[in-house]
Amino acid sequence: MHPPTPPIALTTALLLLTACPVVTSRPNPDHCWNAAGDATCEVHFAGAAPYCTTDLDPCGAAVPFGCATAQPSPECYSPCGGGLSAIEDSTCIAGSEDESVLPDLGPPDLECSADSDCEPSAPHCLANTCVECLDASECVGICDAQSECIACTRHDQCPNEAGCDLTLGRCLDPARVLHVGPEYEHPDLQSATLALALAGGSGTIVVHPKGQAYAGLGITISEGQVVVIRAPVDDVVVLAPSEQAFFVTGRLFLEHLRLEGVGGITIDGGLVHARSIVVVPSQLHAVECLSGELQLENSMLVGVVEASDLAVPIDIAGDCRVALLGTSVFSSHGPALRCKPGDLRAHSRIRKSLLVSADDLGIACVDEDLVVTPHAEYPGVDSGWFVAPFAGDLHLAAGPDLGPLFVNDWLPGDPLVDLDAQPRSPQDLVGADVPYPP
């Protein structure tokens, strides 16, 4: 990793500081350390990043709102906020030894002593409290730390490696998980999708690395099917079919895949939700939406180098809803994203994404239903912006000034990491890559 050239804004700020005789500052009131600790993290991330920490020395944890996914050491942990570490104040934690400041509530009012004391909506007696669930098998989504059933938001939350239907927050059937790879029951994706169709249509396919790309024909996800196709969390699997990789009229969820075949994805009435994928087609569009819905997060898409002018990375050719979040798109010719007025459904949006064309507009789409919030669009930018754009590597290169790509606009639901699982921060870079620790 190479540190970036300091942003212009930062250089200007340093010059201003040298001209000012006195500089005062105050703690950021929105940071959990100065606010309500873990309770602030619960408001922003609903359990996804539950622990309050700090970016001050010696902790140095630069995470959104100070909220971390793993519990820090006591000196770097502030469960109660107020600018105090857990060593100084942990009275808000149940069972804390220092309860001198807590009011005397008298003997506890026990809700239950056995399951028979509980209602059907919360049938289990756990620690004298009636709760909804004890594990995910009792929920359509997942069972959280408070023993409540909530919607799944990631595939790795579901039992037995099943995927999550992210549109409904439901885990797919844990008994219908198929594995593809040299040491598994299915040697290729075609075999697994056929078996899934024969078994009822919906389910999860985990594709394992085999040292080379998976070739073969494209895959059709039919109307009524809900399919998750992903690689294991720490792997990226390459698919190189001899035609369009996926034709989708059902619902398809993709994760940790690299598509290098003739074409990428065609949506015709279906939905595609992809996280952490790279699409580098040799002849056709990376994504073509005739009708339906496209959601891309933390992904990289590249337009083909030698093709007709019609083959742009993202082509919206019908009634589609489009959502790009933390995604990088590069076109060697023509726009990175193209649509015509009236092609987009309401609530289409591009957020914190980087769209670059070597010789045209980044976004060639004028439609009142498209909402564009912090993003960067660069027409006429040469390939020096990226490490190897024509090969599909849209990681940011070390040379260019990255100042224009910084945004300070964090919303709940924004990705906590980039394509390579590096942590993001509130002062974030648009696109799929954070090229150095924030």
Task: Itemize the secondary structure elements and their pairings.
Layout: H1 8-19, H2 38-45, E1 51-52, E2 67-68, E3 124-126, E4 129-131, E5 142-143, E6 149-150, E7 164-165, E8 170-171, E9 177-180, H3 189-198, E10 203-207, E11 219-221, E12 226-230, E13 237-239, E14 244-248, E15 251-255, E16 257-259, E17 263-275, E18 278-279, E19 287-297, E20 300-302, E21 314-325, E22 328-331, E23 337-338, E24 348-351, E25 354-357, E26 363-364, E27 370-373, E28 376-379, E29 386-388, E30 393-396, E31 406-408, E32 427-429
Parallel strand pairs: 9-10, 10-12, 11-14, 12-15, 13-16, 14-17, 15-17, 16-18, 17-19, 18-20, 19-21, 20-22, 21-23, 21-24, 22-25, 23-26, 24-27, 25-28
Antiparallel strand pairs: 1-2, 3-4, 5-6, 7-8, 29-30, 31-32
Write a concise keyword list for the protein shown above.
about 450 residues, mainly beta, 13-stranded parallel sheet, seven-stranded parallel sheet, 3 helices
